[in-house]
Amino acid sequence: MVCAKLWSPWLVQPVSAMRMKKTPGFKTRASTYSIGLAPTSRATCRVCKKAVGKGEVRIVAHAFVRPGRSRDFVYHAGCATPKLVQAMVSVYGAVQWVPMGREMDPLVCEEVRVDIERVSKR
What we know:
Layout: H1 9-12, H2 15-18, E1 32-37, E2 57-66, E3 69-76, H3 82-92, H4 106-120
């Protein structure tokens, strides 16, 4: 019985030619942020790992993953880090321009903004 040798272009080409061609990909977008009241108590804070209770003030980072896919990262307002505040300011220009939830009392909004600005000055 004679074994027939099969010819394959993969065996002739160098290893670098066998790699897949790069696709053009997609454009990444900067994360967006918002401050509001937690609608449920299911989320956990990324800093302290504790639950963010229903009705508590929270900061949400809306991270872009790929087209059609995003991820929300939740933080207690009191757990804001200087790095988080710096990222918010880089997107909006100032803490006062970060979107606030409509359900929040204006006095609470101002207190949260002052607390966040205080974190950025650390």
